[in-house]
Amino acid sequence: MTRRRIQFVRLREVAGHENSFSLISLSPDHMGFGLGRHACPGRFFAANEVNIALCHVLFQYEFKLAEGATPQATRSGIRMQTDISAKVMVRRRQENIVAKL
């Protein structure tokens, strides 16, 4: 897990804050979807769409670093960026579900 993701997991472990630091929650600490009256009403839909897209990609494809690839993340202030020159091998999975009509 990334450091940022671990930070939010730890914040949710505090008693009384189990539901406070999720993707769709609103707070001054994380205003990805706005705050108060101007909060995005589609944030629930957006979160579900991201989950569906991620599940589709993970079920349909296999990912692996290319042989000898050692990607290095670069830091720029508080921001981290992945190595865009890293080679990743992607292969479509074989269908193993048979649909019965």
From TrEMBL:
Keywords carried by this UniProt record: Heme, Iron, Metal-binding, Monooxygenase, Oxidoreductase
Cofactor(s) it depends on:
heme
Indicate whether Cell division appears among the record's keywords. no
Question: Which Pfam families does the record cross-reference, listed alphabetically?
Answer: p450
Question: Which SUPFAM superfamilies does the annotation name?
Answer: Cytochrome P450
Q: Its Gene Ontology molecular function terms?
A: heme binding; iron ion binding; monooxygenase activity; oxidoreductase activity, acting on paired donors, with incorporation or reduction of molecular oxygen
Q: Tell me one GO biological process term.
A: mycotoxin biosynthetic process
Similarity annotation: Belongs to the cytochrome P450 family.
Name listed for the protein in its UniProt record: Uncharacterized protein
Organism expressing this protein natively: Penicillium salamii
